[in-house]
Amino acid sequence: MKVNSLFLRNSLIVGLLLAAWSSFGQDKPGVSIDKIIARVDNYYILNSELEEIYQSYVAGGQKAPDRCQLLESLIINKMLLAKAEIDSVTVEDKMVDNQLDGRMGQMIQRFGSEKNLVEAYGKSIDALKIELRQQLKEQMVVQTMQDKIAGDVKITPNEVRKFFNSIPKDSLPYIPAEVEIGHIVRLGTVTQEQKDKLRNQLYDLKKRAESKEEFSMLAQIYSEDLGSAKNGGDLGFAKRGAMVPTFEGAALALKPGEISDVVESPFGFHLIQLIETRGAEYHARHILLRPDYNRGTDVTEATRYLDSLRTLIQSDTLQFAQAAREHSEDPESADAGGLLQDPESGMTRLPLDASMDPALYFAIDTMKVGSVSPPISYRTSDGRSAMRIIWYKQKTEPHTANLRDDYEKIAQIVLVNKKNNALEEWFKKAEGDVFISVEPEFQKCSIFGLSPVASQ
């Protein structure tokens, strides 16, 4: 069996499944939504899945792989899921719920409000969450299986050099312009009016919970922590140090059954009810209300703070990377000295093309390499209003690939190839552990060299 670009294609396919959900979530006329075209153990692949992923490429302006390649990738995905089930590989529900909250937040932000999202899809938030949750869970299980199979694969500089030297000189790829960009983010502060409003709402809920109403029921209705709300606000057992200090301190000060005063944390405002303690663990539930970051946030202090940092950086009193590590409120980039990274590869050199965030693209379009921008408006991935300063660190002009400038990219290719080999070996062993069948209409496809048979 030869599985070309297995690791890349399988990583891509789970992302495309989510893209298809966001772009093609409603039923489309002329697309079969229930025709089974392949089966892997108890997992089925529908023709609609294949078509939605194909159309995701088209909608994104990309050249789509042929449907045989996409079907093979879907089967790979299902094989990993089936083997995960056999090998008892799972992911914690809490991890899935955290991912779900983030994805739903992005969707709501994209559509402007929950109401707009519901109207666009003709489905309730709960129904949309159920659909997306299963896809996210499968994605995370697949990733866990990939890490289990090939996560320990490493490469050496000699392997990178050997691979590069094996490429004919007239076949070396042409690398487009790329840039390295850093930013320092400061969040806006919630206005006192917003804080008072949320505190009053939570104190009203506390009175209701201390009279006749169940705390868990109130959490289901009012809590904005989407992951725990459906479970009555239940957060399960947490080890000491797992939660933010303000939350944990308030929870551990309670007796079982007691409800806290309103607690402020980086996530919003909470009412906490302690259920029980067990050694170094405690079990609590909560109701979370978040500020309206669109209308209830003041960025005056954030702007002043960043102005001061920029002055220090421009006078060489403070290095940008140090300032980012010590002062940025973007945890994803702060540890990297503020440098923005490609989410797929983790590399800091970003292509200077239409794939870049438009706000970032137009910001650096007027900047000189090495300069730091004045504070500009920024919206975080979870919808918070903020300000940021941007550092245009470096620009690499278009060029033919070489080891000096493109070592990271070439090393990434070598690593992927080596992981593909590890996965290919795994598939040779795993093929016999799962049942695979493909509908005759796809008999022109060579799925791992299998002869297609009718689904059973």
Automatic annotation (TrEMBL):
One of its GO terms (molecular function) is peptidyl-prolyl cis-trans isomerase activity. It is an enzyme of class 5 (isomerase). Keywords: Isomerase, Rotamase, Signal. Its EC number is 5.2.1.8. Residues 176-276, 279-376 form the PpiC domain. PROSITE patterns: PPIC_PPIASE_1, PPIC_PPIASE_2. Residues 1-25 form the signal peptide. InterPro entries: OMP_Chaperone_SurA, PPIase_dom_sf, PPIase_PpiC, PPIase_PpiC_CS, Trigger_fact/SurA_dom_sf. This is Peptidyl-prolyl cis-trans isomerase SurA. It comes from Rhabdobacter roseus.
